[in-house]
Design a protein that fits this description.
Length: about 300
């Protein structure tokens, strides 16, 4: 197959592009997303949520390449045989490129690793992990103007379908390239510059640019609702190519209506603060503090409180 722009040998088939044209098309897509959705203003300080995986590494690379002020922020949940490897890669990557790196550990914040917590809890690991990870990211992103996430189009298609199936209208109204409760005090806005990039494009770019990490997935992913939805979407995409892109674009065109409806129906409750840790929370006690009590791990204190 030949590049549709110059006739050279292709490195990517859909669309057919050679190495140079694929790289410039991919980078243009990401930077156009940033500009079109006004994700970043010059001078803003950006924490990039990094796992050491391909998506967040590509994001870190592209934001640094365009000259943004980036700091990598990683969460060490304490998942033996997995997170230690991805963090070793991330440490090396940041050191070689002079990118500041922060690592925040469950062990320090909550008194136990995720592996240890799961010995005491009947809950699924991803439920516990997701609550505590969001808690720590939110707390430490407060020193920054933006928190950038490496979510790609496939991730977003999963989030849309998961929240549709759960009829979670409040969360549905808060997805999108600029996500979250953007006006709440103590809450750093989240941005997703890879929002319109398919997972296979991110994978190809990371491979071509030598950013590839060959780590396997978290061993706990098999046990999650997200994995079920991901497998369903992949099967459906195989028989209906373009389905995920259609889903995300349909969602984007419905987003203003979903946001209006959520506001009118009171689904977007005003965000107060947790009575125990004082982090932003719609309930009197936030989910992290409730879970912590349930699993009986130590209290996360608000920094500086
Ligand atoms: S797959 Fe689940 S347990 Fe593993 S890092 Fe992701 S949320 Fe945490
Ligand atoms: Zn070409
Ligand atoms: Zn709390």
């Amino acid at each position: 197959m030949r590049c549709r722009k110059c006739g050279e040998r292709t490195v990517f088939s859909s669309p057919a592009l050679c190495k140079d044209h694929f790289i410039s098309a991919f980078e243009k897509k990401v930077y156009d997303t940033i500009d079109r959705y006004k994700l970043i203003s010059r001078g803003q300080r950006i924490a990039v949520a990094c796992s050491g995986g391909k998506d967040s590494t590509v994001l870190l690379h592209l934001l640094q390449k365009r000259g943004y002020d980036v700091t990598a922020m990683a969460i060490d949940e304490g998942i033996a045989g997995y997170r230690d490897k991805t963090l070793a890669f991330l440490r090396r990557f940041c050191f070689e490129r002079g990118i500041p790196l922060q690592v925040h550990r469950y062990q320090d914040a909550f008194g136990a690793s995720l592996d240890h917590m799961m010995q005491r809890s009947p809950r699924k690991p991803c439920t516990v992990c997701g609550v505590f990870r969001r808690y720590l990211l939110n707390r430490h992103a407060r020193d920054f103007d933006l928190l950038a996430l490496g979510h790609n189009l496939d991730d977003e298609a999963q989030s849309i379908l998961m929240n549709l199936l759960l009829n979670n209208r409040a969360v549905l109204s808060r997805l999108g390239p600029k996500a979250g409760i953007v006006e709440a005090e103590g809450f750093t806005p989240r941005i997703k510059p890879l929002y319109l990039c398919r997972e296979k494009e991110v994978m190809a770019y990371s491979f071509i640019q030598n950013l590839l990490t060959d780590f396997t997935e978290c061993p706990n992913i098999v046990d999650s609702f997200r994995a079920e939805v991901r497998d369903f979407l992949n099967d459906h995409e195989a028989s209906h190519p373009g389905f995920k892109e259609l889903l995300v674009h349909e969602y984007l065109s419905s987003l203003p209506r979903l946001q209006r409806q959520a506001k009118d129906s009171g689904d977007l409750e005003p965000v107060g603060s947790c009575s125990l840790c004082r982090e932003p929370s719609a309930a009197a006690v936030c989910r992290a503090c409730s879970l912590k009590k349930e699993i009986r791990v130590s209290s996360p204190e608000r920094q500086g409180a």
